[in-house]
Amino acid sequence: MRTYRVGVLGATGAVGQKFIRLLSDHPWFTIQAVGASERSAGKTYSEAANWVETSEIPSSIKDMVVRECKPEAMNDVDFVFSGMDAGVAGDIERSFAEAGIPVVTNARNYRREPHVPLLVPEVNPHHIEQIKKQTFHPEGKGFIVTNPNCVCVPLTLSMKPLIDAFGVESVVVTSMQAVSGAGYPGVPSMDIMGNVIPYIGGEEEKIMWEPLKVLGELKGDGTVANATLGIHASAYRVPVMEGHLLSVVVKLKQQGITEDQAQQAYANWKNPLDGLELPSAPKQAVRLMDDPRYPQPRLHVQNEGGMQVTVGRVRKAGLFDFAYTALGHNTIRGAAGGAVLNAELLVKKGMIQPRS
Ligand code: NAP
Question: Distance between CA atoms of 132 and 139, rounded to whole angstroms?
């Protein structure tokens, strides 16, 4: 298989660094260009980035000169990943799509656009068809694909086996979110050490809306009819480095389901990515753990390279039908790794082509 030349926009940030690490030895994608703000452009990557990953900057990247995030400065790539600040991502990502360069982004700017897929590949892979209705580029060469908020990913993935088996009517989710979700340097240490902050601005709204699009029905005109699921969300910042832990309570459509049947739904679930052999796809996307103490961020967040969502304590709930715990890596599964998996699916389905 040929390799694709990729650019990384926002390459110096927290999510950008994850992209660099995940892409530096990727079998299909080669980093051709790194981009960031005017403050960083012209510097080498190692000068511009405050590297916070635990492994060293890949040797092939550290001396690469950071470019401006403009399509004319990145004309030698097949497509770009974006981990840019949302304050600037809207205009810049549009300019790339209009120039015929596909954009696979983490930023929130286009998540609600009617023809832009909000993708969790194991949950709604067919939504990539929405790309065909995008009008950024006259020949459809440039498009935008987004991945959802870092809670929406483990929430929709952990609910999907229950949805497929019994239907879900409503859900209440409480998310205990890692500090890395706030970027770098993020939450001041004196606010978060030994503490829990019961508010993350803008987060609960995203958690209550994005799953509706992800779980929605693709229509013939390329838009999505949002799912009618009821969702209530609470978001707390907790002193954990990586990994958002969710406490989830669901009301099922089908009544009379036993605890054993609910647990069995996870074992029986058919992952639509099985057989596609996408390099970043976890062997088991959703894993139900037996031990009632699990999952825990420190112990399980790195499962399958941070791409697996772990679930535990699936049990009968007093008020609704079932309760469970879920864990997802926020900057890998919920950000850079999710975007890389999106791009792999697009390549596999022939939606991304070499540009020259
Ligand atoms: P961050 O650490 O603040 O990084 C922001 C990046 O954007 C940096 O590379 C920065 O470059 C670049 N940038 C800023 N202004 C720019 C401009 N005018 N032109 C081009 N590039 C510019 O933020 P982050 O935490 O990595 O988040 C990046 C994006 O991913 C955000 O949209 C965020 O909402 C989303 N996201 C984050 C997470 C998470 O867990 N952290 C999860 C999901 C989604 P300089 O270094 O040159 O300033």
Answer: 10
